[in-house]
Amino acid sequence: MAAENVKSFFIAIDPARHRDQLILPRQFTNRYPDLLGSCVILRDLGGRLWHIEVIRSEDRIILTTGWSDFFSHHSLMFGYMVIFEYRGASTFLTSILDHSACEIHMGDPGGSSTTSQPLPSFQITMSAPRFCHRCIFVPGTFASTNLPRFVNDVQIHDAAGRVWQIGVDSRANGVVRRFARGWAEFYTTKNIRPGDTCVFSLINGDVPAFNVFKVAVGGGEQTML
């Protein structure tokens, strides 16, 4: 969840599971069980509104009729991220990130054109094992420009849908200095090694949340961790 007063979540797309219907995350539906009616509206960044039927099965909330049209129109692919921000009245603002963590904007309502706008990000090459395993230092220019001051934690949203809480240490002026508590577990679990280069893409700035991508040897292709 992005923040106490901002109801949001994201989905890492797998067409085999998500092409025809979408089950909303339990963390969201358990926290807000009565938030949605029998239909939701998804508003994409092109301004188009999509009316999606909602069904409830046991403790699950599922987007059904209309979802496959949204899926096809936006050409969702494996590994794309769809971010849902609740705006009230059963309406979500949606944004889509491609494999390079760029935000995809559909052009006209027919979807005849697509452009991408890079999200704020920084890149780190992991150094000596004992150092990069414990913490990573955030570039000062990035932190002062893109992150709120005097925060205690940031989030990492991984490819499996898990949200990692990472404690931060800050400078005296409140600018984030490094990711510390919780980083070692993420580092180990994701099999990061010294010499690996990772890109940290900021997907939400109010309560900072990141996707982390490992850059292939030689550069180019990025894999979301």
From TrEMBL:
MF terms per GO, please? DNA binding
Assigned keywords, A-Z: DNA-binding, Nucleus, Transcription, Transcription regulation
Identify the Pfam families for this entry: B3 (PF02362)
PROSITE patterns assigned:
B3
Q: Where in the cell is it found?
A: Nucleus
CDD domains from the xrefs?
A: B3_DNA
Q: Which residues form the TF-B3 domain?
A: 7-100, 121-216
> The organism sits in which domain of life?
Eukaryota
| InterPro entries noted in UniProt | B3_DNA-bd, DNA-bd_pseudobarrel_sf, Plant_B3_domain
* Primary localization class, coarse: nucleus
User: A cellular component term (GO) from this record?
Assistant: nucleus
PANTHER family for the chain: B3 DOMAIN-CONTAINING, B3 DOMAIN-CONTAINING PROTEIN OS03G0621600-RELATED
According to UniProt, the name of this protein is B3 domain-containing protein REM5
Q: Which organism is it from?
A: Forsythia ovata
